[in-house]
């Protein structure tokens, strides 16, 4: 006679508690602000204080500075990518792309702050892990496709050419004393995507 052994039902992983999720979001927001502000004290202690949590809470969520940077990077990149669809639904393709480039510029400013606060290799790793170039090209490709379909954009432009131009603008204006220069260059870029007369 065989005896059936019954094992307890498998436990489902618990969803994070509401306050734990809130603390994580607060930490990511505080870190993003610290990394974006050239004058900010980007120490982990200062980030925890700004988030309204203890340093232990920060370390439970992000054991190393690199973990925090990678999480900020991924969160910000996801937000930039997600901003494209609502813009395309509410604006013409050229206006949508122009608005999105401002959002992308803000992301690059955050990334620059992160790069200055740690080893460059950690940020390169975060960019590669998130397939940044491919995702940005995909979003720009969607803007270009919508624009060529409506006749707003030229048909001979590659998404990676636009991405390369954006990266060049951001690098070239990094230390510019004129804060409006990037915006003017972005206007020129969008103008250049319009069909030739």
From TrEMBL:
Keywords: DNA-binding, Transcription, Transcription regulation. InterPro entries: Homeodomain-like_sf (IPR009057), HTH-type_TetR-like_transc_reg (IPR050109), HTH_TetR (IPR001647), Tet_transcr_reg_TetR-rel_C_sf (IPR036271), TetR_SbtR-like_C (IPR049445). GO terms for molecular function: DNA-binding transcription factor activity; transcription cis-regulatory region binding. Residues 43-62 bind DNA. It comes from the Bacteria. It holds the Pfam family TetR_C_43. Residues 21-80 form the HTH tetR-type domain. This is Transcriptional regulator, TetR family.
